[in-house]
Write a structure and sequence with these properties.
Length: 114
């Protein structure tokens, strides 16, 4: 049974940092590229970035470039999203995704507010 479980969300002040995790199980994690998405209230889901299966190539949305870092630990079957210099517009539910298989996690809420 495929599972993607996001964690690490919460409330943070503008300028703060958070690290999200996505624990994967039920498939061969190391064989697949992974994405992070987010969805703000009333808006469409937006891709934050993508990392290839080996972790050697990462791409980011322009809105987060230079502030967010995607990484993975294939030995731990875990995907990470390090977020720094957070802004109120980063608020939303963050999801991990396996693009080639259509697997989604349940999401974790990130709220950036003073």
């Amino acid at each position: 049974q495929v599972q993607l479980v996001e964690s690490g969300g919460g409330l943070v002040q503008p300028g703060g940092s958070l690290r999200l995790s996505c624990a994967a199980s039920g498939f061969t994690f190391r064989s697949y590229g992974m994405s992070w998405y987010r969805q703000a209230p009333g808006k469409e889901r937006e891709r934050v970035g993508f990392i290839n299966s080996g972790g050697s190539s990462v791409t980011y949305a322009e809105s987060v470039k230079g502030r967010f870092t995607i990484s993975r630990d294939n030995a731990k079957n875990t995907l990470y999203l390090q977020m720094t210099s957070l802004k109120p517009e980063d608020t939303g539910v963050y999801f991990c995704n396996v693009p080639s298989r259509g697997f989604w996690g349940q999401g974790t809420q990130v709220t950036v507010s003073s």
